[in-house]
Amino acid sequence: MPRTLRPGQRSELYVVDVATNTHRLVFGSDEVLFEAPNWLPDGTLVVNGNGLLFRVTDALEEIELGGVPAINNDHVVSPDGRTVYVSAADGHVYAVPIEGGPGRRVTNDRGPGFHHYLHGVSPDGTTLAYIGLEWVGDQRITNVWTIPAAGGADTKVTDDDFADDGSEYGPDGASIYFNSERAGQAQLFRIRVADRHVEQLTDDERVNWFPHPAPDGSAIAYVSFPPGTEGHPADIDDVRLRLLLKDGEIRELITLFGGQGTMNVPSWSPDSASFAYVTYPL
To answer: Which family does the similarity line name (predicted)?
Structure first.
């Protein structure tokens, strides 16, 4: 079931200018719990809520999903802005025209216990990166996978028992960024597509999720949870949005009340000057 607001809670969508760390409120609602902002090439923001997808203008304008089941907060816009790829409640990824229309299932049937959670599209628009969740006995296994955006055979990029999530292409398409518990609690990593070489990017006391590389490669925005946090829960204090700069410096931008839904998917503006996020104040 889609998440809903608690009594007295709001969803608030912000855009932060990374050069000045200025935060601008774009839209708020005390009726719809919306999540996971994406950008269209024209600067319009897209969010999900109540199992639906919306453009953000002066209101939430529903994007017709053409018969696709209720969606979650894993959706990505194609580089040309013509298609939005969404993860649905049936465990599959669908392609939908951004102007609305019939949805096309992209992913393959890998059995009833396998779920596809979309997080990235390659810069040339040809390949999707997703997290494949499967159960082996009573063990929950997640790995990074890719699949052609047009449909076709899946490729398993990681193949291990570590908890992985948030797989997203870098701006050159050569690496996929993700968070993983392979070093203990969740930290940020990237893996080269060509040879599967893995590099750890963060190593601190906090629990770091959802690396989002800027289109120009200047920084990685991510969500940082308090030490000891399990998973990426909703509605907690001391959630921090951070930038990892090219020289390794970590810049703190804001501490907020949120978590799940705050910044699950690619949320940089096309010019790399800002990114969008959601808070859920009570």
So the answer is: Belongs to the TolB family.
User: Hunting for tokens 């529903």 — which residue is that?
Assistant: 62
Q: How many other C-beta atoms are found inside a 10 Å radius of the C-beta of residue 198?
A: 14
Helix (H, G, I), strand (E, B) or coil at 144: strand
CB neighbour list of residue 125: distance below 8 Å, 6 or more residues apart:
78, 79, 80, 149
pLDDT (tens digit per residue) in 84-120: 999 999 999 999 999 999 999 999 999 988 999 999 9
Token couple for 258: 């949120």
Dist CA 45 CA 53 (whole Å): 11
pTM: predicted TM-score of the whole model, two decimal places: 0.97
Burial grade of 241 (CB within 10 A; 0-12, 13-18, 19 or more): buried
Number of residues that make up the chain: 282
CATH topology assigned to domain 11-279? Neuraminidase (2.120.10)
**SS3 at position 14:** strand
Domain ranges for the chain, please list them: 11-279
